[in-house]
Amino acid sequence: MRGWTHYFSGLAMATFFPPLLSDLARGVMWPVLAGVAGYLPDFLDFKFKKFLWKIDYEVDPAPRDPLKKISPRRVKINELPVAGRWRFYYLEGFIERVIEESEDYFKLREMFGASIREVASSGKRVRIPGYLDQDEQGNIYWNVADAPHPQLIASVIAEAIDRAYETGRMVTVKLHNIRMPGDFYRRYMIYYKPSTREIMVFMGPLVSTGGLPLEGTMTPEYRRVGIAKTKHPFTKVYPRPTIIDAFSGPEIGFERVGDTVEEVFIPWHRGFSHSITGAIVIGGLIGLISLLAGYANWMYLAIASILGFLMHVIEDQLGLMGSVLLPPLTKRRIRGLMLGANKPGLMNFATNWLMIALMTWNLNRYMPLIDPTLPKIIKLSTLVPGITPDMEDALLLLLLALPTIIVYIWGIFDRKKYLERIKEVEFLKKEEYKEALEEAREEVGGF
Amino acid sequence: MFLALFMTTIGVYAMPVIYNLFSPYYWFALLAVVIFMFMSEWPKEADLGRTPREKLWLAWRQILGGLLVFFASGILGFVATYSGLIKLESAFARLTPLFIGFFGVPWVLRNILSKKEIPRQDTRDVVETAPSAIIVGSASGIIGGGIAAFFPIITGGMGALIGGHMASSRGDDTFIISQGAARLVYYTGALYFLFHPTMRVTRGSVAWLVGGLYTPKTWTEFYAGAAVIVFAAGLSFLVTLYLSKAVSKLLSIISYEYISIAVLVFLVGLVLYLTGLPGLLLMIAATTVGFTAMVFNTRLSYCLGSLILPVLANTMGFSGFFFWLLGIGW
Questions:
Q1: Residue B128 pLDDT greater than 80, yes or no
Q2: Which of A348, B159, B214, B281 is most buried, with most CB under 10 Å away?
Q3: Average pLDDT of the residues in A186-191
Q4: DSSP result, A291-324
């Protein structure tokens, strides 16, 4: 669910209390804190915990230019560490002398639009993007490329899994995304294959912030897939494939559970901040603060805040990740219900609609309580024959919430479809990855 | 078409009900949106920090920068509205120096300073987006524009932020579509509210200007308004196709820097003509606030604090504090 949905749910909870509604109509704005409570779980995680979380491995496949904040960054040859193998940079300078010009240097010629000798004689400054690599004999060379090699990422993840198994503690890997000029991102995908203990990383095309691939930007086969094997068994818990492109890269935790290492996607997220315990603590704090500030309806506000916070927790259970529900009694995230996982946007909208329905329902039925001179605006008993005044509120709620109910029921059926689909990740079936995968498998572990 | 269809069918019955239900809570909605804007600020550079402390600082620098911009623009809003700095005869344009300073001048100055050359534009009839992005973008724009048209002070941009969250929009193409749809629904929808015989809502400057001269009263005028919307939409679609191509071609022929300098001269001249030297001073102050938003990489829409802060302070009973702080009326 998106941030606004949680926030809106918190605000909707405040409308269940006529004293709070009455305050709002008079310009007393304390009840807005119920909305704040609704959004607080994500706020705490994304504005604090994310940055304070201990990172064990930081994988930056394409460091950014410090000024332009886009990849690649310029690097001096004498500053290139061998440990920086497969990482995407660019070299810049003049060609002083051409030792040889063979057919193998076709990529350079394509990039320059001229032969290397011609560029050298023109005296032009040239920029050559690529990454440091080693050949079978161990000789270091510069591989002219438009993306890093995915082997770097696969190797680090495999190492982190083994370390988590051997040390018994959680090991976190931070994966940076690759931001290229023109607001494009180089997409890469991580695929875990527990049956063969393989970590596969696929370097994909350039994509827009909306995830649309840019035609003709797919990486060539020989540097499309990286595979690394782990020594120890592992399990992927989060069902969605790990795809890194726009905005920011995720942190992935690895934790030994019994005789296997489990993947914990963004491990700093959905802990105490997304629990029933957290709801009681935060709601209590809001109540206390408002009481100390002299707010008369502090008790209603505290309850509305607890409900707002709880709505966030409940809404998050509808998705994939779930959360830790009752810390300190429980310590591990429970899996989400995965309703409507193929169309999370629709589920999000349906939840927003439900909140609009609840707000409309509450504002209508409490109208005479807030202002005794005003009647209910929607009176179904006067519009529909056979509806008694006792039934009209319940019927109105049903009518208003009906679209959400339909979408949620669809979401239950969609769950099954989704689980079938993710058994085989779609991109593995594509021809463009199949051959590259076979090729990479032959070279597991690199040269 | 959507707007005309909605307003002449479901909207006829739904809009007055929605208005009567939600109108007592306008300021609550406004405050809620403002708080959400701050809370949902996405730290763009925090990942680039080397230590947890640096990451935290990079994240919070942006959020705190947003707060600074909001309150600084709010203070300027108080000064422009209540201090008497702008003479009474220019009071109709009291916010002009602020808005030109917040949004116009920083933009043209940045164009001039960055010395960017606009590359040749591709004007072929190719749509670089997906049908799903068009649907989601339009949905978020319609929701956002509807919110902006209905609730006072909430602008198309703020509305589109909420609409984007509701419709789960993501990506630059979706964003551009949603902003276009939001503006259309916001501007046209707000004016069209004026034509609704049973609602009597005046939203947006055009509605206020028109409302001063002519007030539609009958259902005939209401449906005639819908027909005009559909006709104008069709016409503007055709005109936009050719106009955008012409502008795209001109942009790579005429120096963007020169256009920006000409615009800057025009803006400064306009402020000076309408509000005199005090207005110019306000514009310079507002320009620094607008630039601050750029420096902190935060939302420029926080500059709307110039409108929002005085309104919220009045509603919540805090305006006396700001008057005391600024020495206004003491």
A1: no
A2: B159
A3: 94
A4: HHTT-TTHHHHHHHHHHHHHHHHHHHHTSSS---
Chain A CB contacts of B129 under 8 Å are 210, 212
Q: Are residues A104 and A154 in the same domain?
A: no
DSSP secondary structure letters along A181-220: TTTEEEEEEEEEEGGGTEEEEEEEEEE-TT-PBPTT-PPP
Co-location of A139 and A167 in the same domain: no
Q: pLDDT by residue (tens digit) across B238-265?
A: 999 899 999 888 887 888 889 999 999 9
Number of domains chain B contains: 1
Give me the phi and psi of A161, to 5 degrees please.
Answer: -65, -45
Whether A339 has a pLDDT exceeding 80, the answer reads: yes
Residue B238 CB neighbours (<10 A)? 9
The answer to whether the CB atoms of B129 and A212 lie below 8 A apart is: yes
Residues in chain A: 447
Distances (CA, A) of A58 to A16, A157, A160, B69: 47, 10, 11, 34
Residues A310-334 as b or e (16 or more Cβ within 10 Å = b): bbbbebbbbbbbbbbbebeeeebbe
Cα B248–chain centre separation: 24
Do A166 and A35 lie in a common domain?
no
Confidence of residue A441 (pLDDT cuts 50, 70, 90): low
Mean pLDDT over A67-95 rounds to 89
Q: Chain B: nearest CA to A48, how far in angstroms?
A: 7
Rounded Cα gap, residues A401 and A350, in angstroms: 9
Both structure tokens of B149: 């048209």
- φ, ψ of residue A4 in degrees (nearest 5): -60, -35
Asked if the bond preceding A372 is cis, omega within 30° of 0, the reply is: no
Which of B55, B167, B316 lies nearest to residue A29, judging by beta carbons? B316
Q: Tell me the shortest Cα–Cα distance from A366 to chain B, in angstroms.
A: 10
Mean pLDDT throughout B125-143? 86
* pLDDT value at A447 more than 60: no
Contacts A2 to B, Cβ<8 Å: 165-166, 168
Q: Which tokens belong to A431? A: 């021809």
Q: Which domain holds residue A300?
A: 3-48+295-421
* Closest CA relative to residue A272, chosen from A34, A45, A2, A9: A45
DSSP 8-state assignment for residue B116: P
To the nearest whole Å, the CA of A1 is away from the closest chain B CA by 8
Looking at chain A, which residue has its C-alpha nearest residue B163? A4
Residue B319 token pair: 């305006």
pLDDT at A427: 57
Region at A141 (left for phi over 0; alpha for psi -120 to 50; beta for the rest): beta
The count of domains in chain A is 3
Q: Which two tokens stand for residue A62?
A: 């394409």
Q: Do residue A58 and residue A187 come from a single domain? A: yes
Burial annotation B165-183 (CB, 10 A radius, 16+ → b, else e): bbbbbbbbbbbebbbbbbb
